[in-house]
Amino acid sequence: MIRTRSLVSDGSRLRRLAPLALPTVWGAAAVAWKFGCPLARQPGLPMRIATSVVFLTVGTGLVLGLRRGLARELARVRAVAVATQQVLLRPPPSRLDGLALAAGQLSASRGASVGGDLYEAVATPYGVRIVIGDVRGHGLAALGAVVAVLGSFREAAHDEAELGGVLRRLERALERHLRERARDEHPARGGSEPAHPVAEEFVTLLLVEVGSDGRLSVFNCGHPGPYHLGPAVSRLPVGDPLPPLGVMPLPAALAPYTEAWLLPGETLVLHTDGAEEARDRRGRFFALDTALAGMPGETPAALVRRVHTALLDHTGGRITDDVALLVVRNDRVRVPGGGGGNQRGPPPPPPPPPPLSEGGGEKW
Question: Does 274 lie in the same domain as 142?
């Protein structure tokens, strides 16, 4: 086994040095020409030109060889980075428990497909649970908080029966991350753990549960409300906002907002604030609601691509903040008058009580 590893290591080193083989041969030939060939030592302009051509050829070959080796190494590093980013912020499945989904992100960091925004959608026994969030700041520096929140959500969404329990788990995971970061960045690293996490980093997020009947349960922690695409484009009400995670503790009692619905054929668009705060050269904000008013029957993936294209056109390709979109369309079947998982909307109100007789008793 040790012998095999040694051979593999030697082969890898040889592959890395291969682009330098030809420039090395050229260099040896140039040195031999300069010091071993009598013609190279003769005075006169023709010999100086010939010597310059030899050394220029050697220099060009050396640069091209190094460039080729660096390009290969950069391609390998990019492949590893893309694979890592796709595992961290993996695209949601196109179909999930009767819902059609699509998501996409534009990162403010050049060359990165992951930044300070996060999203995830999972099917659980309690409904399809979705999270979208935005870490303070942008780019690769915010990845630690993204990892903490997404890792916790992927476990808690399946373990916690109540949506409030999922939010508590996310809060604890972020607090642990901030404490560890504060301890690592403290001048006296290695000392006791700080009493409170750093207050400079926080996460706004929207936590949504889509029930089997289309009822939405929503927690809004300082995040922009989603858009509802039905007959018209409108903001979906999500109730009173909670503080962003990491700013202050969540209240002792947590109750989600449950007065919103996603009926069959309707679409929900969750986004981060970078989508609405993007500006053009004249300082005008991007009109996300106008961009969402698109073609009837458009798939979630097509909607994400079209909005991203419109946003890049609006900003001239200069994204100053991360932008994430997650589109959910209810493709479940309508069952008129049915109950349970395919109910068209909120249940009808109960019938009025029977009228009372003049004596106050019931009329039989």
Answer: yes
Nearest to 322 by CA among 214, 197, 204, 238: 204
End-to-end CA distance of the chain: 93
Structural tokens at position 81: 């980075």
Express each pLDDT in 211-227 by its tens digit.
Answer: 999 999 999 999 999 99
The predicted model scores a pTM of: 0.69
Phi, psi of 2 (to 5 degrees): -65, -40
Q: Which domain holds residue 13?
A: 2-83
- Cβ contact 136:116 at 8 Å: yes
Q: Could you tell me how many residues make up the chain?
A: 364
Question: Which residue, among 91, 92, 137, has the nearest Cα to 116 in the 3D structure?
Answer: 137
CA dist 210 and 328 (Å) reads 10
Please, which residues have CB within 8 angstroms of residue 178's CB and are 6 or more apart in sequence?
Answer: 145, 197, 198, 201, 246
Residue-wise pLDDT for 58-84, tens only, equals: 677 667 766 776 777 766 766 555 555
Last residue of a domain, one of 58, 83, 108: 83
